[in-house]
Amino acid sequence: MKPDLRNRRIGPAGILLIVLLMLAAAWNWWPVGDHVRLTPLATPAAADARLPRFAAIPGGGAILSWVEPDGDGHVLKFGVLRDGQWLRQGTVASGQGWFVNWSDFPSVVAVKGDFWVAHWLVSQPGGQVYDYDIALAVSSDAGRSWREIGPPHRDGTAAEHGFAVIFTDRDAAGIVWLDGREYFEPAQRAFNPGKSGNFALRFTRIFADGSMAPEQVLDDNTCTCCWPAVASLPTGSIVAWRGRTDGEIRDNRIAVLHDGAWSKPAGLGGEQWKIAGCPVNGPALAARENQVLAAWFTAADDRPRVRAALSADGGQSFAPAFDLDDRRPLGRIAALWLDDSHALVSWMAAPRDEKTSALVVRSIDRDGGTGSSIRLEALSAGRDSGVPQMLRDGARVYFAWTDKAPQFGIRAGYIPVSALLP
Fold first, then answer.
1. Which residues pair with 76 in a beta bridge?
2. Cβ proximity of 290 and 313 under 8 Å
3. pLDDT tens-digit profile of 268-323?
4. Which neighbouring-strand residues pair with 411?
5. Element (H, E) at 257
6. CATH of range 51-344; options 3.40.50.2000, 2.120.10.10, 2.40.10.10, 3.10.450.50
7. pLDDT tens-digit readout, 400-409
């Protein structure tokens, strides 16, 4: 006869074990890696702010920009962070009819010296939901005053223009964006003669006086809503984006800007992910001199993964890609270099349930060796959390993301670089 266990008392060791298991179920659902909590960082953003975005200031310091509701409209604001302290705040622009979306976030970028450029998104009056333009403003006094200069795209069509990245390009600012002026739904082909039906990755330069160079098409067939990434090189820049083929293969591509000229697009990863719609999951880039780290999300063969690859020659070639997380992560990736030999990638891990994910980081050395995955914070698994941001300034790595809906609000924190090195 089996013993009757109904009245057996659980001793202290058993109680401790149960508590630990409950805590594991509540937090440690991600099955590998260490757990390091961020030191919280209060931000000057309003309680209902959204869409944080970091940008490094040449010479030290960082900009955090965000969007706040403002009556019936919105306002783009920023704060300047140095050595863990907020030095000042500013406002770029405000208005009604803005396009505010979790995956397409405005920016404020310190280009060179006091020359700064900012962008936000404005819906086209009377257009469809995704008919919107990129609005630009320039500053000649490090963000203390701003002058609007119009969009980087001059087509004037009712179409999607977004997912912009602004970066330093010699004495000017470069900007790349996804452009839908040639796009139409397949059923509308007969009504759109002469159009390709594709999205494109476009580029132009913005000068300190507010003038712009002619537009260039870097790729005439891209995914529609996966944000691009840009990193600076000694002789130019490198851009990564999710491409598309007519057969609906949506793998990542790169191009290199060298001495003012862009290379032809080249494949990155080559997983052959066939998906009929945009996965809304862009790549990340980080460069230190000619050492380049690329990281991206793919779900080819129904295997959601975060992957990475390294280049030692400024993106001219990449070593074979490798997986950082093959446990069905959500993606939404960021990347940076910790020092000359170690880089860091962040992403959102597989959700514990429909509501909760975790912000995870993992270090990579320049030879492709990886450290342990480190779990930092729990955050919403939904789109309300946006795309978590990561930036290194001095001896700290900062993180920022949007808190869960409907209250929103921006959460931020930091961790010492030393805690992230192997």
1. 67, 93
2. yes
3. 999 999 999 999 999 999 999 999 999 999 999 999 999 999 999 999 999 999 99
4. 401
5. strand 252-258
6. 2.120.10.10
7. 999 988 899 9
